[in-house]
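Sequence in, structure out.
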Amino acid sequence: MELLPVVCLCLLTWSGTTFAAGNGPDVIKMVVKEGDDAILSCSLSTRENIVQKLFDWKRDGQKEVFLYDAGVHYNNGRTGQDEQFRGRVSHFPDQLQFGNASIVIRNTKVTDSGNYTCDFPRLQRKRRGLIELVVDPVLKDRTEENIPGAASKPSVTILEQTKDWSLLQCEVQGASPKPQLQWQDSGGNMVPAKDPQVTDRGGSYDIILQTTVTKTDHYRCVATQEEINHQVHAEIHVYNNGAAPKPSVTILEQTHDGVLLQCEVQGASPKPQLQWQDSGGNMVPAKDPQVTDRGGSYDIILQTTVTKTDHYRCVATQEEINHQVYAETLVNVTVFPTGWVVGAVIGTLFVVGVVLAVLGARGCIRCNGRGSVV
């Protein structure tokens, strides 16, 4: 049972670049992907405190990567660090007391590949560690790296469209080496396309790739030049059969309570959510929607009564296909308060009564006992 801690200690000792005076350090090969961080290990097997010591990291024996000297280093005022590593390299201050001089290179670049040495030049018996760092390139947009011939962002357009399909075109010009173009849907799946139209202008290529799609989705045209690890893309959103059309909004009637508005959408799939909004984007309370399901295609009517003059908007949203469309109308509302109307009616009746009384008094000059005029 007591052997386990000893074995663990040995594993920890050999997991990094540990060394002492001898015939020379072993070379450790380290492979990382471009953009990842790389921790280059370096520590004294004696684990002695190096807070007041000096250690120096170099690449290929020339470029200054990181130098630490009794608390002074490239990140707190010391000069001399190679521009390539400025702001990307740091050490582990809390590990210095254990003889750990490891560093981390952040956001690695392909040009960071090389042989790195870790030296303790002031020790009585000099120590050195050696790491071969290999940064594997990844496909990414490298237009900012000013690589000659790197394809610029493709131009994507809808050439023709019906209610059932859309013809898409992707175009790249002046690219070298010759790029590979591919259409993809929002899930990253390849979309079948026609044979590309390629024009060779003396080693510089213009390429056009067309495809016909039948579904509403985000479509991406990807241009790849593996020889220079360059990949760039452009996207376009296509609305085909099922995307809700612009709603139809109408004023049905005006009552003493306000104005009754109706919003209608037909033939939408997936089922859209309808909402009335005022000019400030605030939701306007509405009746329950009237929904007709026609085998997965939906007709929806949404009514609301408004009492203020304003611009009102009916918004149809289909989140599943990232589609939203709206229509709006201006409503002029003239509403008389109920109390005012009742008062006006009573006042009118009173005036009519007074007039009739006056006319009766003037006409009844002689009346018999039963109120008849003689």
